C-alpha cells in the first residue's frame, strides 16, 4: 500500500511529521537552556533584559484596565505583542511572565515549521541543514530567548511568504497587513521577503502590497510619530557582526553564504529562486547595516545561502582530505559557538540578583514614583510594581523627559528639588552603577543632598545599590 503523501509537497507525510517533531524538540531544548541556567545555576527568576519587562508591564495594565503610556500614546507597534500576552493570561489564568515565555516558545516552533515549509516550496533539498543553521544562529537564539517584540512580526512575515508561495494571494495580503502593523522595519522586511514569491501574477499582488504598506505605516506613525532610526557608520557594521556580544550575524555563516553565492552564481539563470534569494540577501543586508533590527529577518535568508555554501564545500573535490577536514571543522565550531555562548550571555543579562533583591525590597514599601536611570524603569515597574519618572519607552515618546530626569539628579537646591519631587510624586531614588555614571564626583548634584540633608533617608544599601526615601517639607 502506498504511504500517504502531503498533497502540496509530494514528500512522505510520516517522514515530514517526524522531522518536524524532532526539530521542534531541538528548538525547545535550545530555548530552555538560558531559562535553566538563569534560574537553576544563577538563582535568578527574572526575565532577561528590559524589552520583556516592557511587554509584560503593558500586558498587566491591559489585564487590569490600568492606564499605560504605550496605550495612551496609541503606540500600535508596541501594543500587539502585549495584547497577545494579556489575552493568553486571561484565557489560561496565568501570570504575564509565564505567558510571554509560553508564547515565545509556541511562536518559535510555529516559525520553525513555517521555515521548513518555505524551504520546501522554494525547492531546496537540504531542509534539515538550513533549519539546523536557523536553530543555532545568534539572531534566532536572541530573539526567542529574550522574548523579543519581533517574534510576532517575524512569524507573520513567514506566514505571508508561505501563503504567497502557495498562491493564496488574498490571505497573504491580509497577513502582510498584520505584519505592517508592527512598524516600518517589519513592513519593509515582509515586502522584501515577497520577492521570493515572484511568479505569474506577482506584480499585481506587489502593487497592492505596497499600497497596504504605505497606508498602514502612515496611519501608525500619524498616531505614534516615533520613527525607527536609519544611519550608516562603521560602528553599525562592527556591531552587526558582533554576534556573540549581542544579536547579530554569525561571521562564519556569512562566510558560508558568500561562498554559496560565488559557487552557485553560474546557476542563477537556470534556477530563478537562487537569483531571487541573492536579491533579498543584498537588500536585507543593506537594511541591517542601516538599522540592526532588520537582522532578525536577514537571518532567515542567510541560513539558506549558508546551507548552500556548506553543501557545496562538502561536494567539492579538495586537493587534501586533511585540509578539507580542518576547514570544515573550523566552520562547524564557528557555527556552533553561539549555541553555547548566547544562552549563557542571555542567562547572565540584567537584571542581576543584586537589582532583583533591591526591587523585591522596594515592592512592599508605600507608594510613590521612583527616580533612577531610564534603563532601570521597566524593571522597577515590573518587579517592584512602582511608578517611575522615566523609563525606556517614556524617553522615546518624550525626549525632554530624559533631560528633566538628568536635571533632577544633578539638582543641588533642596527647596527647588522639594517642589519638583512633590509635584511629580517622586518618593524614592534608586542609585545603581548605571545611575552613578552620570556623576563625575561623589558629591555632585543630588548626591550632595543625600549626604548632608535630612530630607532623604537611606532605606536600602547592598551590593552597590542604594534606595533613598524622600521626605517632603511640611
Walk me through what this model shows.
This protein is mainly α and 474 residues long. It folds into two domains: 335 residues, no CATH class; 118 residues, Rossmann fold (3-Layer(aba) Sandwich). It is 66% helix and 5% strand. It is built from 23 helices and four strands. The protein has a four-stranded mixed beta sheet, with helices on both faces. Helix 2 crosses helix 18, helix 6 crosses helix 15 and helix 7 runs parallel beside helix 16. The relative contact order is 0.09.
Write a compact overview of the structure shown.
The protein has 474 residues and is mainly α. It has 23 helices and 4 strands.
Beta percentage is under 5%
* Helix-strand pattern: HHHHHHHHHHHHHHHHHEHHHHEHHEE
* Major sheet description: 4 strands, mixed
Termini gap: 90 Å
Question: Can you count the helices?
Answer: 23
Quaternary form: single chain
Please tell me the overall pLDDT: 89
| Percent helix | 55-70%
Structural class: mainly alpha
Cα-atom Rg, whole angstroms? Answer: 25 Å
Question: Any low-confidence stretches, pLDDT <50, length ≥5?
Answer: 1-11
Choose one word for the global shape: elongated
Main sheet: which strands, in order across?
Answer: 1-2-4-3
Number of strands: 4
SSE diagram, text form:
Elements: H1 13-41, H2 51-63, H3 69-72, H4 76-92, H5 96-121, H6 127-136, H7 138-145, H8 151-165, H9 169-180, H10 184-193, H11 202-223, H12 234-240, H13 251-264, H14 272-290, H15 295-315, H16 321-347, H17 353-362, E1 369-371, H18 377-384, H19 392-397, H20 399-409, H21 414-424, E2 426-431, H22 433-436, H23 446-452, E3 456-462, E4 465-470
Parallel strand pairs: 1-2
Antiparallel strand pairs: 2-4, 3-4
Amino acid at each position: 500500500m502506498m504511504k500517504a503523501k502531503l498533497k502540496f509537497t509530494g514528500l512522505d507525510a510520516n517522514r515530514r511529521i517526524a522531522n518536524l517533531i524532532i526539530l521542534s524538540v531541538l528548538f525547545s531544548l535550545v530555548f530552555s537552556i538560558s531559562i535553566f541556567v538563569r534560574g537553576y545555576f544563577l538563582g535568578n527568576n527574572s526575565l532577561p533584559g528590559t524589552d520583556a519587562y516592557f511587554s509584560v508591564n503593558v500586558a498587566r495594565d491591559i489585564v487590569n484596565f490600568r492606564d499605560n503610556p504605550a496605550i495612551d500614546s496609541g503606540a500600535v507597534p508596541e501594543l500587539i505583542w502585549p495584547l497577545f500576552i494579556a489575552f493568553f493570561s486571561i484565557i489560561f489564568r496565568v501570570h504575564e511572565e509565564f505567558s510571554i515565555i509560553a508564547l515565545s516558545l509556541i511562536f518559535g516552533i510555529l516559525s520553525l515549521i513555517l521555515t521548513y515549509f518555505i524551504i520546501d516550496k522554494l525547492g531546496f533539498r537540504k531542509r534539515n541543514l538550513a533549519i539546523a543553521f536557523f536553530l543555532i544562529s545568534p539572531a534566532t537564539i536572541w530573539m526567542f530567548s529574550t522574548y523579543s517584540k519581533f517574534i510576532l512580526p517575524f512569524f507573520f512575515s513567514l506566514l505571508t511568504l508561505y501563503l504567497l508561495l502557495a498562491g493564496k494571494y488574498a490571505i497573504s495580503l491580509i497577513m502582510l497587513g498584520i505584519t505592517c502593523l508592527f512598524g516600518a522595519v517589519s513592513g519593509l522586511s515582509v515586502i522584501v521577503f515577497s520577492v521570493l514569491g515572484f511568479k505569474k501574477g506577482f506584480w499585481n499582488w506587489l502593487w497592492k502590497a505596497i499600497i497596504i504598506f504605505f497606508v498602514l505605516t502612515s496611519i501608525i506613525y500619524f498616531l505614534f510619530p516615533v520613527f525607527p532610526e536609519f544611519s550608516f557608520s562603521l560602528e553599525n557594521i562592527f556591531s552587526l557582526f558582533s554576534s556573540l556580544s549581542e544579536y547579530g550575524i554569525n561571521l562564519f555563516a556569512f562566510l558560508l553564504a558568500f561562498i554559496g553565492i560565488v559557487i552557485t552564481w553560474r546557476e542563477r539563470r537556470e534556477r530563478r529562486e537562487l537569483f531571487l534569494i541573492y536579491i533579498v540577501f543584498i537588500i536585507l543586508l543593506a537594511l541591517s547595516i542601516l538599522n540592526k533590527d532588520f537582522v532578525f529577518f536577514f537571518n532567515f535568508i542567510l541560513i539558506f545561502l549558508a546551507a548552500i555554501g556548506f553543501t557545496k564545500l562538502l561536494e567539492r573535490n579538495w586537493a587534501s582530505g586533511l585540509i578539507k577536514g580542518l576547514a570544515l571543522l573550523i566552520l562547524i565550531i564557528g557555527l556552533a559557538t553561539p549555541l553555547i555562548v548566547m544562552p549563557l550571555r542571555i542567562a547572565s543579562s540584567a537584571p542581576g540578583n543584586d537589582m532583583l533583591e533591591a526591587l523585591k525590597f522596594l515592592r512592599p514599601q508605600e507608594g510613590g514614583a521612583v527616580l533612577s536611570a531610564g534603563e532601570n524603569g521597566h524593571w522597577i515597574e515590573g518587579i517592584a510594581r512602582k511608578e517611575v519618572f522615566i523609563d525606556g519607552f517614556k524617553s522615546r515618546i518624550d525626549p525632554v523627559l530624559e533631560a528633566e530626569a538628568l536635571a533632577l539628579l544633578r539638582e543641588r537646591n533642596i527647596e527647588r528639588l522639594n517642589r519638583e519631587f512633590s509635584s511629580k510624586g517622586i518618593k524614592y531614588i534608586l542609585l545603581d552603577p548605571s545611575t552613578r555614571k552620570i556623576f563625575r564626583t561623589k558629591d555632585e548634584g543630588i548626591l550632595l543632598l543625600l549626604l548632608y540633608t535630612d530630607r532623604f533617608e537611606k532605606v536600602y544599601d547592598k551590593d552597590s545599590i542604594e534606595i533613598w526615601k524622600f521626605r517632603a517639607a511640611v
